Amino acid sequence: MNDHGFTVVAYNRTVTKVVEFLNNEAKGTRVIGASSLEDMVNKLKKPRKIMLLVKAGSAVDEFIDSLIPFLEKGDIIIDGGNSEYRDSNRRCQNLRDKGLLFIGTGVSGGEEGARYGPSLMPGGNEDAWPAVKDIFQTIAAKVGKDACCDWVGPEGAGHFVKMVHNGIEYGDMQLICEAFHLMKSALGLSHDRMSKVFDEWNKGELKSFLIEITSDILSAKDRDGTALVERILDSAGQKGTGKWTAISALEYGVPLTLIGEAVFARCLSSLKDERVIASKQIAGPESSRFNGEKKDFIEDIRQALYASKIVSYAQGFMLMRETAKELNWRLNFGSIALMWRGGCIIRSAFLGNIKEAYDKNPYLSNLLVDEFFKSEMQKCQESWRRVVSTAVLLGVPTPAFSSALAFFDGYRSADLPANLIQAQRDYFGAHTYERKDAPGVFVHTNWTGKGGTVSATSYTA
Ligand code: 6PG
């Protein structure tokens, strides 16, 4: 903000950090320091715009509570952390009752983005937007002339969209890890070769920040000249946003299978000790080496990654669509795709295609039925199936590639075996079912001849 000519007052609970900041990073800038909350509030122009960057959860509530006594009607509190969107719904309502305006904004881009141009996803009380719009859109990353920031929607909509961004980030990372695993275990490629493969991929449809950094990571060496990545413990951490995305999907009944698998893959990875013990006791297939043409299989993996990624984004947008419907939010999917096009962790060329799909049809029911994506999936299908079946035969786990393919096959099926589930439910619990020739009418069959005609009420949770 300072770089772009806005005056910033900096405050931290540990005031020595403010002093250090002013003497180092902020030296020679116009950033003003504050020694207390009251001092900070007094130094700000009205309506005050106060942006919190603190750990999600109770720390945000505590901060807001200690700020409130110093604020006046019309002042704006902006939460830029990774808050849970329902917390933001609540904070927005509570502050509105006090005459204060709340914005919960997603901020993505890591250290570099924060410093040189993040993707910003603000939502909350729309009355606050005119006061911060210029600041946010000026500092945000740009794609051409377009800022990767726009108003998302009411209450916690900004944090919700950021949460889905993070879920997709989990999915993208897991897909890349599966491609890496196949190239390492099934093809036995060196890290330098894999780095080159990712670098090549970064020139085409998969061009993205995460592919780019993966190429860099794979070429990095430890002190002894071997690949640094192999020195890193294979136990993935997580701060919760991926899990929240999966929980929301369960709550709204959206089959967000790929992100769910990505979260569970991290959980499985963290069972390192158990896995080490199991690896000595449970054998897989005799060989995990692929015998065919390596070059062709690398291309198959690329296409499998691309197709799975399309499924992942289609699922992410399905979740946003359903949540928006449930909560009565009007989300603009084309503008969300643009916000993610630059600055953020999932930024990629591919988000430009998603934006185009929603620009063409803002009411698109699913990305998979958009003409462009439909034909991309057709092109990749064969390779994708080859990769998943080969991985299964070789015993290399590919939960995200596989579940994406299972979703794809399920979504394109007019008939699924759920008729049998309905029959089973009715058989053992008299839960009733709808007949194809009389939809909307729930009936019960006395399957054994011993049950009565009484049935359970029919409802879907
Ligand atoms: C971003 C990131 C960031 C996220 C980290 C850590 O958009 O800049 O999504 O907000 O907090 O990636 O996430 P995990 O610890 O859950 O991997």
TrEMBL record:
Claim: NADP is one of the keywords in the record: yes
GO molecular function: NADP binding; phosphogluconate dehydrogenase (decarboxylating) activity
Keywords: Gluconate utilization, NADP, Oxidoreductase, Pentose shunt
Protein EC: 1.1.1.44
Pathway involvement of the protein, from the record: Carbohydrate degradation; pentose phosphate pathway; D-ribulose 5-phosphate from D-glucose 6-phosphate (oxidative stage): step 3/3
Binding-site residues for substrate, renumbered to this chain: 82, 108-110, 165-166, 170, 239, 266, 425, 431
Pfam family, one: 6PGD
Source domain of life: Eukaryota
InterPro entries noted in UniProt: 6-PGluconate_DH-like_C_sf (IPR008927), 6PGD_dom2 (IPR013328), 6PGDH_C (IPR006114), 6PGDH_Gnd/GntZ (IPR006113), 6PGDH_NADP-bd (IPR006115), 6PGdom_BS (IPR006184), NAD(P)-bd_dom_sf (IPR036291), Pgluconate_DH (IPR006183)
Active-site feature positions: 162 (proton acceptor), 169 (proton donor)
Domain spans labelled 6-phosphogluconate dehydrogenase C-terminal: 158-448
Catalytic activity: 6-phospho-D-gluconate + NADP(+) = D-ribulose 5-phosphate + CO2 + NADPH
Function: Catalyzes the oxidative decarboxylation of 6-phosphogluconate to ribulose 5-phosphate and CO(2), with concomitant reduction of NADP to NADPH.
Binding partners and assembly: Homodimer.
NCBIfam families: gnd, PRK09287.1
Similarity comment: family membership: Belongs to the 6-phosphogluconate dehydrogenase family.
PANTHER family xref list: 6-PHOSPHOGLUCONATE DEHYDROGENASE
Protein name: 6-phosphogluconate dehydrogenase, decarboxylating
Native source organism of the sequence: Candidula unifasciata
